């Protein structure tokens, strides 16, 4: 799966088995693919490729992306019927309750997925290996999303201790409450981006994030059964973020 901050491409995503839904948070009756109220047909993945953005609550979008008259509480409903994935950035800053995940799950159509950015308190911890208990709690809540949970993004901006980092990655859980977990790792410590990192990710079946950025390391090595790209060169002067030529190049690549 591929994701991004301002625009994302999710490619060759592997399929997630049917979820084990926790009784406390049952699904609403499944909606049809055509949403009569919003007048939209959810796009879903195309040849396994998902395209999304980071977040959905932005004031400027109410003048450009969201239709006039759409109330703010329905913005996720609308965005999830125009895109096939959204990266949740709010999880980086604060914990969300399981019933919040359940509401998001039920507001989005079949075939849609969320990715979630791991909490700052974990990824910026001095000793990552000491946070694995917090990791269990975090992914336990995310599992409420069921089959709408895509990848979990672990973004590391600081210098890393190689042994501590390896212990952390090895300890990432493979499932939570019956829901399979997929991990995407973004390492911004250039000194640690090497063959050792590639081998570590490959052993864990974790994707190394392709950032498409001149500021951060960007790896094209395939280390998992999905790919995660965060396209970070969007330009405000371009209505589509990327130029037409750049978008065509990406379309050819994926």
Taking the alpha carbons of the first and last residues, their distance comes to 11 Å
Mean pLDDT: 85
CATH class descriptor name: Alpha Beta
CATH topology: TIM Barrel
The CATH homologous superfamily name equals Protein of unknown function UPF0759
Structural class: alpha/beta
Low-confidence stretches: 1-34
Instruction: Report the oligomer.
Output: single chain
Strand residue percentage: 15-25%
* Known CATH architecture: Alpha-Beta Barrel
| DSSP strand count | 12
Tally of domains: 1
**Helix content estimate:** 25-40%
**Molecular shape:** globular
Q: Any key phrases for this structure?
A:
two-stranded antiparallel sheet, alpha/beta, disordered N terminus, eight-stranded mixed β-sheet, TIM Barrel, single chain, 254 residues
Describe this structure in words.
With 254 residues, this protein is an alpha/beta fold. It has one domain (7-16, 40-253): Protein of unknown function UPF0759 (TIM Barrel, Alpha-Beta Barrel). Helix content is 27%, strand content 19%. The protein contains 9 helices and 12 strands. It has helices spanning 61-64, 75-79, 90-93, 98-107, 120-123, 132-142, 162-171, 195-204, 244-253, and strands at residues 7-11, 34-35, 40-41, 50-54, 85-88, 113-117, 149-156, 175-176, 179-180, 182-187, 207-208, 227-231. The strands form 3 sheets. The chain has an 8-stranded mixed β-sheet with strand order 11-10-7-6-5-4-1-12. A two-stranded antiparallel ribbon has the order 2-3. A two-stranded antiparallel ribbon has the order 8-9.
How would you sum up this structure in a few lines?
By secondary structure, the protein is of the alpha/beta class. The protein is 27% helix and 19% strand. The chain has 9 helices and 12 strands.
């Amino acid at each position: 799966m591929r994701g991004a901050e301002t625009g994302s491409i999710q490619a060759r995503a592997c399929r997630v088995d049917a979820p084990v839904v926790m009784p406390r948070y049952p699904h609403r009756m499944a909606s049809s693919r055509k949403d009569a109220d919003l007048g939209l047909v959810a796009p879903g993945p195309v040849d396994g490729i998902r395209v999304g953005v980071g977040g959905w609550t932005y004031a400027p979008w109410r003048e450009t992306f969201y239709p006039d008259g759409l109330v703010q509480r329905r913005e996720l409903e609308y965005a999830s019927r125009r895109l096939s994935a959204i990266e949740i950035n709010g999880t980086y800053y604060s914990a969300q309750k399981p019933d919040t995940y359940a509401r998001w799950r039920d507001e989005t159509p079949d075939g849609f997925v969320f990715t979630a950015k791991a909490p700052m308190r974990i990824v910026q911890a001095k000793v990552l290996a000491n946070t694995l208990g917090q990791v269990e709690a975090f992914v336990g809540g995310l599992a409420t999303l069921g089959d709408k949970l895509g990848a979990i993004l672990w973004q590391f901006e600081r210098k890393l201790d190689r042994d501590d980092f390896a212990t952390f990655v090895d300890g990432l859980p493979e499932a939570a409450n019956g829901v399979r977990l997929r991990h995407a790792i973004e390492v911004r410590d250039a000194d640690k981006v090497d063959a050792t990192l590639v081998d570590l990710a490959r052993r864990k079946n974790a994707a190394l994030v392709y950032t498409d950025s001149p500021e951060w390391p960007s790896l094209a090595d395939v280390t998992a059964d999905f790919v995660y790209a965060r396209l970070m060169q969007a330009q405000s002067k371009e209505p589509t973020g990327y130029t037409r030529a750049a978008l065509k190049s990406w379309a050819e690549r994926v």
